[in-house]
């Protein structure tokens, strides 16, 4: 049984405070985990509370529900207790940041006692043979960097890689090549929150550069390397109504998409994205439309869904109810999975299972604010996720990528 649960504020990769949780079991198991944090957060995500508030609430409500009562290895029981401690639909009482840190720390404490790797504890004895393709952010802007591209993320997608290690190295090579191409053009660039280059160039230039970089790296490595996008379009969508409370799940779609100097209607945005998929043979397009526009997502998926992954991040927020609506509407064909969007590992796995049963690919994902925590690498292997999005360079990103390389060696 769980003996104690402790919390402390630590730093994330942006230098913001975040919640770290530690779980100690009566038989000497120990687990530690920390919550990541988004910048381009979806409207329907579980609530991240200010860190001190989240920690105080977790100490008061969550810890007493677990200590002496729950077994760390019973992840469903632990996560149900965290839900009960909160009592709301969206973790607005104890904070999704406290919730997810606790959930992940309990899983790690269980593995410490069981002596099994985390991916095996979460996935079962037969897991660990399939590896996710890492989608690596190589250039971008949006909410992750000022004065950079309007599209949030240009992602290397080494879909032909024979191993996870080759895939990780290929993404790093694309990142390096993009850096060279930028400096050849005289575009000195800093890096954004996820370690991607953040030059102040137009999206059109970024497409040229990334297209060239992935081709070069494909030649060098001898396997297919494509690329994809996270457009994070909800951040660029302006509702037509002035005070539009965009609470409906069927957005009227009559607002405008403003990407830099380009302004597009929903129909134009769909045409634009479908054109990009064709022109650049995109492997992946995340959040190409607003988070309320199931209909637009369905139209685009209908048009390009057999050529590319159309992924819902802010659209689904790892939430089974929103995913169920999306499946019914034919919106997207894959789901981004961020455990802190929904608050517990059990909820994240529920979303993945529903997605998989319905032919939607799960893409397990980091946040722009990260820590050295490697739980998502194990989660991706545990559920046989076909993709993981966890950056390319930078210690908090390579923590996950290197963990994937280690797991692959073990398995
Ligand atoms: P976030 O961005 O972590 O800032 O939300 C990542 C994403 O949109 O996929
Ligand atoms: Zn996203």
UniProtKB/TrEMBL annotation:
Briefly state the protein's biological role.
Catalyzes the reversible conversion of 2-phosphoglycerate (2-PG) into phosphoenolpyruvate (PEP). It is essential for the degradation of carbohydrates via glycolysis.
Show the Pfam families listed in the entry: Enolase_C, Enolase_N
| MF GO annotations | magnesium ion binding; phosphopyruvate hydratase activity
Residues that, per the record, bind (2R)-2-phosphoglycerate: 152, 338, 367-368, 389
The active-site annotation reads 194, 338
Tell me the pathway.
Carbohydrate degradation; glycolysis; pyruvate from D-glyceraldehyde 3-phosphate: step 4/5
- Where is this protein chiefly located? cytoplasm
The cofactors it requires, by name, are: Mg(2+)
Encoding gene per record: eno
Query: What SMART domains does this protein map onto?
Result: Enolase_C, Enolase_N
Q: Does the keyword RNA-binding apply?
A: no
Residues recorded as binding Mg(2+), renumbered to this chain, are 230, 286, 313
Provenance organism: Halobacterium bonnevillei
- Supply the CDD domains for this chain: enolase
InterPro entries attached here?
Enolase, Enolase-like_C_sf, Enolase-like_N, Enolase_C, Enolase_CS, Enolase_N
EC no. given is 4.2.1.11
- Reaction it catalyzes: (2R)-2-phosphoglycerate = phosphoenolpyruvate + H2O
The note on the cofactor says:
Binds a second Mg(2+) ion via substrate during catalysis. Mg(2+) is required for catalysis and for stabilizing the dimer.
Identification of the protein by name: Enolase
| NCBIfam families, A to Z | eno (TIGR01060)
PROSITE patterns per record: ENOLASE
At the top level, the lineage of the source is: Archaea
């Amino acid at each position: 049984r769980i003996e104690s649960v402790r919390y402390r504020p630590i730093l994330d990769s942006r230098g913001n405070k975040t919640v770290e949780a530690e779980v100690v079991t009566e038989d000497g198991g120990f687990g530690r985990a920390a919550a990541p944090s988004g910048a381009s957060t979806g409207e329907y995500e579980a609530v991240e509370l200010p860190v001190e508030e989240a920690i105080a609430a977790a100490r008061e409500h969550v810890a007493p529900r677990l200590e002496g009562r729950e077994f760390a290895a019973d992840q469903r029981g632990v996560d149900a207790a965290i839900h009960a401690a909160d009592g709301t639909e969206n973790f607005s009482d104890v904070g999704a940041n406290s919730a997810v840190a606790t959930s992940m720390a309990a899983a790690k404490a269980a593995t410490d006692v069981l002596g099994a790797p985390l991916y095996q504890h979460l996935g079962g004895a037969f897991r660990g043979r399939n590896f996710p393709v890492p989608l690596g952010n190589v250039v971008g802007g949006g909410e992750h960097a000022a004065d950079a591209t309007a599209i949030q993320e240009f992602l290397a997608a080494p879909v032909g890689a024979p191993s996870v290690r080759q895939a990780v190295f290929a993404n790093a090579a694309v990142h390096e090549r993009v850096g060279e191409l930028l400096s050849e053009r005289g575009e000195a660039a800093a890096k954004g929150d996820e370690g991607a280059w953040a030059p102040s160039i137009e999206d059109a230039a970024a497409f040229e550069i990334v297209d060239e970089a992935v081709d070069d790296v494909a030649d060098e490595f001898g396997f297919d390397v494509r690329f994809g996008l996270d457009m994070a379009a909800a951040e660029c969508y302006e509702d037509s109504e002035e005070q539009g409370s965009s609470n409906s799940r069927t957005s009227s779609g009559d607002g405008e998409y403003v990407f830099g100097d380009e302004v597009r209607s929903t129909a134009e945005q769909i045409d634009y994205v479908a054109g990009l998929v064709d022109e650049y043979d995109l492997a992946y397009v995340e959040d190409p439309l607003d988070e309320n526009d199931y209909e637009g997502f369905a139209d685009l998926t209908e048009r390009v869904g057999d050529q590319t992954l159309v992924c819902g991040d802010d659209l689904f927020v790892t939430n089974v109810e929103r995913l169920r609506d999306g499946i019914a509407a034919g919106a997207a064909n894959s789901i981004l999975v961020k455990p802190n969007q929904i608050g517990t590992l059990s909820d994240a796995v529920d979303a993945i299972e529903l997605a998989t049963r319905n032919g939607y690919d799960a893409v397990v994902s980091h946040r722009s604010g990260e820590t050295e925590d490697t739980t998502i690498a194990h989660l991706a292997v545990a559920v046989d996720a076909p993709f993981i999005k966890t950056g390319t360079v930078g210690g908090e990103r390579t923590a996950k990528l290197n963990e994937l390389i280690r797991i692959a060696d073990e398995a």
